[in-house]
Amino acid sequence: MSILAIIPARGGSKEIKRKNLKKINNKTLLERTIDEAKKSKIIDKIYVSSDSNEILKLAKRKKIFSIKRPKNLSKDNSKTLEAIKHLLDHLELKKNYIPSYVIILQPTSPFRKSYHIDLALKKIIKDKNADSLVSCVEVPHNFTPELLMV
User: Fold this and answer.
1) Global pTM?
2) What is the three-state SS of the chain?
3) Which of 11, 17, 72, 140 is the most buried (most CB within 10 A)?
């Protein structure tokens, strides 16, 4: 069984310039995600998918595999799924690698820890009927869906 972690990290952002390279306590959002993925006891391979040379260089410094994402998959309206498919197609065609499981680790979840990652992976592996799993966080009872989207 092989488990691939994909970290999709565009260079651009509609709201916050260079968002994935913003720092919290001297570590970028991307570095935080990479570091926790590396601590996982279950993940076999980690790939960063990005259109940004700066992000790809950071991945290389952290000794993480990376792939340059085409510009047409890196627009504001591009779907993350398109970038994931691009990477998976590349791995299958060029590396003859098809993972058993794929976990998507967004850099914009900087407080996720490796034990959260491993817990989620164990849960999906254990449930033979499940084909996907999405993490979420409990919000206060007085929050409505409309307020969460503001």
Assistant:
1) 0.90
2) CCEEEEEECCCCCCCCCCHHHCEECCEEHHHHHHHHHHHCCCCCEEEEEECCHHHHHHHHHCCCEEEECCHHHCCCCCCHHHHHHHHHHHHHHHHCCCCCEEEECCCCCCCCCHHHHHHHHHHHHHCCCCCCCCCCCCCCCCCCHHHHCC
3) 11
